[in-house]
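Escalated from tier 1: coproporphyrinogen I holo job.
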Amino acid sequence: MSQIAPLNDRFLRALKREPVDKTPVWIMRQAGRYLPEYRATRARAGDFLTLCKTPELACEVTLQPLDRFALDAAILFSDILTIPDAMGLGLHFSEGEGPQFARPIRTSADINRLAVPDPEVELRYVMDGVRTIRHALAGRVPLIGFAGSPWTLACYMVEGRGSRDFARVKALCWNEPELAHRLLDVIARSVAIYLAAQAAAGAQALMVFDTWGGLLPPMQFHEFSQRYLGQIALLLQSDPNTRDVPLIFFSKGANSHLETLADTGCTALGVDWTISLEEARRRVGHRVALQGNLDPAVLKASPDVIRAQVQATLRSFGNGPGHIFNLGHGVTPDIDPENVRVLVDAVHEFSGHPYA
Ligand code: 1CP
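Tier 2 regenerated the structure:
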């Protein structure tokens, strides 16, 4: 893929902690059910997984929020559960039920059978999606590729579906830690190869979603989640093709680990809304950029409140480089798209540096 610089490179500059004219902004789940045009494309596709597996449709929904709002980055439309699906667990989404696996991990034999998928074979549709989107973007904004963290993928693979506490995988960690490590290791190698393939296909930054890191007590967080994030960073850094691709780690609910996460070798850390950016920044120092962290529920408030909270978030980060504005988690389906516009415009309005 060509290395032509994007026309709008605020996002990539902020990741490198370089000065920017305005704070870049993108929103987790920016392509999704709160947009009527997304719901229309999904209805045409029939179901969510077909949407993910059809590169032209995945490209269409990736671009939808960019056509509406002045966003500074695109994110590949896909899901974190593509890897376990490619490993043979049989992913399906039933209406209103969320993801489910036909063949969840239940025995040590299930773990021993797992193999690292070849991204250009079993996950070819994702790589074709990245290539199609990158071409369609034509340099407008950079494209983010992503994967789930090994821990978060293990949560779904062992439980077989979404859960509030993912008690099965937690029991596995306490009862058979060696088996849990064998599972996490094969997932981590799969994630690293998958992310490297996305970069080769044209993704200009990579993000790892550790949505369920916060379920673990501190010692176990280091042992079962952070250790594998570090392994992914190391594998990507040791590959000349991915060494310079910015890497964002987002461990939700794990703010007490920001310092050690900043030492894993990532470029930036996502921050949820339960800590101020001021404190997060003080704790990570100059080691990484920060991405976040407005409470997604603020989008249910009035435009005046949204604008005031955007300003408060920008002030909390303070002056200096290294901030990417985002929510502290994904935008929810009940949000009025007009409120997203208010947020995006306010980020640029209040962060404009007149002499930049
Ligand atoms: O249309 C629909 O009904 C499906 C809803 C949906 C969407 C829009 C799902 C099912 N996944 C997605 C897309 C998606 N998922 C993206 C696209 C890019 C974007 O615009 O941000 C991304 C990055 C994800 C990642 C993802 N999937 C995560 C990690 C991020 C997070 O939100 O914490 C997780 C945990 C999933 C699993 C998943 N996929 C879908 C659902 C409803 C869930 C959560 C299941 C649960 O635990 O309840």
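Residues 9-293+321-329 form a domain with the TIM Barrel fold (CATH 3.20.20.210).
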